[in-house]
Write a structure and sequence with these properties.
Strand order of the largest sheet: 4-5-6-7-8
Order of helices and strands: HHEHEHEHEEHHEEEH
Helix content: 25-40%
Shape: globular
Number of helices: 8
Distance between the termini: 46 Å
């Protein structure tokens, strides 16, 4: 059983909320990435869509096209994709049509997190973007509506596509292995807006916490570290500050 073009239309209708109210997170990460939000650049994140989702996007807009690999790493990514998926790219952030964003775009940097027992308890994040995505250092900015819509959209997807469930179950297991090796807890935004930690080297034990316990990672630990990173990335740090 796989999700259809019609199913993805339902998902798009269910899930349109921005991550945070009155906050454009792209303005925070863009100075680290030649002025382009990290999630809007295929040099950082290549959107992957199911073939049926691709059919939907093509029927709605000319914003998207198939992604053209530009180096060894991107060629490897495309080559190793499952047969039922494809890599795509849009015209760029200046041409964004929010109603026609892919599911990957709507969700980034979050993904649905499953416990070892297979329970979807909330949203985790793609940790490889820790050094570029401000939201990962501030997951508590995720708005209640965003969390609710994302959880409901993915639950609908899992009900219609078992392979998607398996993919995110494995992604969650991979994250546990990585963070246990790092001896660091995983920060989870719970489905009911509670804040949770998955403890390292604990077999996936989940404990409640306060959002104040969620710690940022470099370069988002301080204004000084942030501006230094902008300069190292070739940008001008003048006038750039982290939100308070």
């Amino acid at each position: 059983m796989t999700a259809t073009k019609k199913d993805f239309k339902v998902i798009y209708d269910m899930f349109s909320a921005p991550i945070a109210k009155k906050l454009d997170c792209g303005r925070i990460c863009a100075p680290l990435n030649d002025g382009i939000p990290v999630c809007c650049s295929t040099e950082n994140a290549i959107p992957i869509v199911e073939d049926e989702e691709w059919k939907l996007l093509k029927s709605r807009t000319d914003l998207w096209s198939l992604f053209k690999p530009f180096d060894k790493d991107s060629k490897k990514i495309v080559k190793e994709l499952p047969k039922s998926t494809c890599a795509v790219e849009c015209k760029g952030v200046a041409f964004c049509e929010r109603e026609n964003r892919s599911l990957a775009c709507r969700s980034f940097p979050f993904f649905p997190y499953f416990t070892k027992e297979g329970e979807l308890i909330g949203l985790a994040y793609y940790w490889t973007f820790e050094d570029r995505c401000w939201v990962i250092s501030n997951v508590q900015v995720a708005d209640k509506k965003f969390v609710k819509e994302m959880i409901e959209a993915y639950e609908y997807l899992f009900d219609h596509d078992e392979e998607q469930y398996e993919a995110y179950y494995e992604e969650s297991a991979t994250m546990r292995r990585v963070f246990s090796k790092r001896n660091e807890p995983i920060q989870i935004v719970g489905r009911d807006m509670q804040y949770l930690l998955v403890l390292p080297k604990s077999g996936g034990r989940v404990v409640p916490t306060k959002k104040s316990a969620f710690l940022p990672t470099k370069p988002f630990t301080s204004d000084k570290a942030y501006r230094k990173a902008i300069k190292e990335a070739g940008g001008d740090p003048a006038g750039h500050h982290l939100p308070k």
